[in-house]
Automatic annotation (TrEMBL):
Keywords: Transferase. It comes from Lipomyces kononenkoae (Yeast). It comes from the Eukaryota. This is Pyridoxal phosphate-dependent transferase.
Length: 474
């Protein structure tokens, strides 16, 4: 048994209790102590089992050799694919639950969920039945006609949202195909509203977003993503975008009467798993009200259960809610779909012909979305995420204590976590993959963990033990 998880059998409960009392890691997202106290003995037992299952520092998953099936596949087909990604040579074949297999037969524990997409994991049998049944019946009709599933999905999203402490003004939903398309639509809606609002007009078109954010790669959402790495090769960008500092209340003066919209992530996922403070979000809502600017919450990564709430902004004060909310990722569990939820006052500004989509809202995607929302939004499912969050919190804090010269901070809530390093995270990511765990990077030297929301305690502890082995190896 490794030292980290051997110690876990004695300290995992006290570690979870200590972490739950602290709000410094993610203000507004501290979890109730009941989730940790009730399940303490189970954590310790599972930790022991996970530790004994994995050999310290052993490379169990070698990257494919130059003569492998994987290498032959890449050599044959890579010349025909536009190179926009740097990726390891393994070729993924199939998955079940929280595990993925490559074509060489190697099994990996998935802490990426397709970048926070596969909330219900891989190979969900009920979803497979839905794909099959609906594909035989109808996949696409265009938005020239109604279909049987877009309306019911939109209604369910609105009803489940209103049943939470989240966006109580939620009124209507526009369905798109992806997160960046959802953000593009939200920005268009806000600009239309700005031109029509009293005191608005042609000058009211500016959009404010925040440093360290990520809103997508199409030109409007890219213009709202102030990262030179992403923006510089494609300049000039869409005019009218300004930037402020996340959690800096004094910096909100950049929002003026010419601002039509402010777009913000309640949790900056791609930026490194950083949390907006309740004080900042409340001040932001007030500032938007003062100048009649539309407040857009980008919950593409943080929404639909990822934070332990249906929407991450439920952790904010009741007066700090958005006018528009964008979603995608988990909504289709891998089927491309995105959506924009708006209040009635924003909806009133949008008329027939103002926006559209060919594929968005097709019956296959929206039937899947209806099923996913129905499962993810139950109190029992969300409570389980909160409980599992404390397993992660305690295990990751133990890693920080064991490797203080490498790990500087642990940030997270629900099933979105960032391990802040003082160095390049790629050697850790590579070492984890070579031991059977898939993790990804984010922000500045951060290892990001976003597993399927169905993950079990045993799988969490297995992954933490592999991370322990990975840190020890480098």
């Amino acid at each position: 048994m490794s030292p980290a998880l051997g110690t876990a059998t004695r300290t995992i409960v006290t570690g979870a209790l200590r972490a739950a009392r602290s709000s410094s890691l993610c203000p507004g997202y501290a979890m109730p102590l009941a989730f940790t106290a009730v399940h303490g003995r189970n954590y310790a037992s599972a930790a022991t089992d996970a530790a004994e299952a994995i050999h310290q520092n052993a490379i169990t998953h070698k990257d494919p050799s130059e003569t492998s099936k994987s290498a032959s596949f890449v050599q044959e087909y890579e010349p025909y694919c536009l190179t926009t990604y740097a990726r390891p040579a393994l070729i993924l074949s199939h998955g079940k639950g929280c595990y993925i297999w490559d074509v060489e037969g190697q099994k990996y524990l998935d802490f990426t969920a397709g970048i926070a997409v596969n909330a219900l994991g891989h190979g969900d049998e009920e979803l497979a039945k839905i794909y099959y049944e609906q594909s035989l019946k109808m996949i696409h009709t265009s938005n020239l006609y109604y279909n049987e599933w877009t309306g019911p999905m939109c209604k369910l999203i609105i009803e489940r949202t209103r049943a939470t402490k989240g966006m109580q003004s939620a009124s209507r939903v526009f369905v798109a195909n992806s997160g960046t398309e959802a953000n593009e639509a939200a920005l268009k809606f806000a600009r239309k509203y700005g031109k029509l609002t009293p005191g608005g007009g042609e000058h009211k078109y500016e959009v404010v977003s925040f440093y360290n954010s990520f809103h997508g790669r199409s030109m409007g959402s890219l213009s709202a993503t102030p990262n030179p790495k992403y923006q510089k090769p494609f300049a000039p960008l869409v005019p009218g975008f300004k930037y402020a500092t996340y959690n800096d209340i004094d910096g909100l003066d950049v929002i003026t009467k010419n601002t039509c919209a402010v777009i913000i992530e309640p949790i900056q996922g791609e930026g490194g798993v950083y949390f907006a403070t309740p004080e900042f979000i409340t001040a932001l809502r007030k500032k938007c009200d003062e100048v009649d600017a539309v407040l857009i919450f980008d919950e593409i990564q943080s929404g639909l259960g990822r934070s332990g709430y249906l929407w991450a902004h439920e952790a904010f004060p009741a007066e700090a809610q958005p006018d528009v909310l964008t979603m995608a990722k988990a909504l289709g569990n891998g089927i491309p779909i995105g959506a924009v939820m708006v209040s009635e006052r924003i909806a009133e500004a949008i008329k027939i012909g103002d926006h559209g989509t060919t594929f968005g809202g097709n019956p296959l995607a929206t039937r899947v979305g209806h099923y996913v929302v129905d499962r993810l939004s139950t109190p029992e499912f969300l409570d389980e995420i909160k409980r599992k969050a404390e397993v992660f919190r305690s295990g990751l804090e133990q890693l920080k204590e064991k490797y203080p010269s490498v790990i500087t901070e642990i940030r997270g809530t629900g099933l979105i976590w960032g391990i802040q390093l003082n160095r390049d995270p790629n050697p850790i990511i590579d070492a984890a993959r070579q031991r059977g765990l898939l993790v990804i990077s984010a922000g500045n030297n951060t290892v990001r963990i976003v597993p399927p929301l169905i993950i079990k305690e045993q799988e969490i502890l297995e992954g933490i033990e592999i991370l322990n082995s990975s840190f020890a190896s480098v």
